[in-house]
Design goal:
By secondary structure, this protein is an alpha/beta fold. The protein has eight helices and seven strands. It has a five-stranded mixed sheet with strand order 1-3-2-6-7, with helices on both faces. Bound molecules: uracil (URA) and iron/sulfur cluster (SF4).
């Protein structure tokens, strides 16, 4: 069955609690079928900084909260190192249900990157969160989040750590907010990289987050 996207499930409200409740009923794409539950964003409701990841992972899917697993712990450390208060930010994902494969029956669930169709289907939730939180700075963690809001041709490697703005409305993304936007890598990429490179990759993530801290100062 062709899914129609999240649009029809998103209520006309800026109340984050109402949005999160409504997301439980979303069938905007097929990812709700296999996941445990929707994982909506969380944190400070009028945060100056909104961080956007890709999609919940295995632990987030079980807990129902974003960035509580290994990537979340790394992100917490990076935020602390950059001087950003983890309790003062809002954290969410481009896609709200966990997409995974099981290489063998009954075995561990392995993260699968969401398709462009799924990212676009879920974007109305993300836009509603942006409209509600109205952050001064948005941090795009990884290519999925970056392409969701900057366009499918956006090159993260060319622009990480820069201070940008969302592109002018192209019909697809009509935003009522105009925050400063800092793209950087996804914290999982630091964990997945070769052990010898991890410290360097972590420091580079912190350096990008220090750009964010500088905008807040
Ligand atoms: N990775 C993400 O992109 N988001 C999470 O919530 C957890 C891991
Ligand atoms: Fe809805 Fe997003 Fe979940 Fe798809 S991934 S069902 S669009 S909340």
């Amino acid at each position: 069955m062709a899914a129609t996207g999240a649009e029809e499930y998103v209520p006309a409200t800026r109340d984050l609690g109402e949005l999160a409740d409504a997301a439980h009923a979303c069938k905007g794409c097929d990812l709700y079928l296999e996941a445990t539950q929707v994982v909506f964003g969380g944190g400070q409701r009028s945060a100056a900084v909104m961080l956007i990841g890709e999609q919940p992972g295995d632990q987030e899917d079980k807990a129902g909260a974003p960035f509580v697993g290994p990537a979340g712990r790394l992100l917490d450390r990076a935020l602390t190192s950059a001087g950003i208060d983890r309790n003062a930010v809002y954290v969410t994902n481009a896609v709200k249900h966990f997409k995974f494969t099981r290489p063998e029956r009954g075995k561990r669930r392995i993260h699968k990157t969401p398709s462009r169709t799924e990212v676009v289907a879920c974007r109305p939730w993300l836009i509603a969160e942006l409209d509600s939180v109205r952050p001064d700075v948005v941090v795009l963690l990884g290519a999925t989040a970056a392409k969701s809001l900057m366009g499918n041709d956006f090159r993260l490697t060319a622009h990480r750590g820069e201070v940008l703005r969302f592109p002018a409305a192209d019909g697809a993304v009509a935003l009522d907010v105009d925050p400063q936007v800092v793209p950087t890598v996804h914290p999982s990429s630091v964990l997945r990289g070769p052990p010898a490179d991890r410290d360097k990759a972590f420091d580079a993530l912190v350096a990008d987050l220090e750009v964010v801290a500088g905008l807040l100062a």
